[in-house]
Amino acid sequence: MGKQVTQSTMPETDLILDPVNLGKLIKAKRTAMKMKLADCAALCGVGINTLSRIENGNPNSTLGATFSILKGLGIRLSHLEPSKYTPDDEWV
């Protein structure tokens, strides 16, 4: 029997403001679905290395690949009104 997928934890923030936390969110969702990296990459139509780089927070990943992964995993982005942000929120 193959190696089992170990579930990752969700980011410790409600706001995803940087590639590192977006990668953590994607990895947490994938592992919660007990999906291996190769299977997820195939499902989303991206390469294994691309998915791995995005999960590791690489800021140079393409938006197209990132959105393919988000769509494949059923992750939706939402827009918050500016008044919902606190002064401590940083934009990267």
From TrEMBL:
Domain HTH cro/C1-type: 26-80
SUPFAM superfamilies given in the database record: lambda repressor-like DNA-binding domains (SSF47413)
Pfam families assigned: HTH_3
Cross-referenced InterPro entries: Cro/C1-type_HTH (IPR001387), Lambda_DNA-bd_dom_sf (IPR010982)
Transmembrane segments: none
UniProt-recorded name of the protein: Helix-turn-helix domain-containing protein
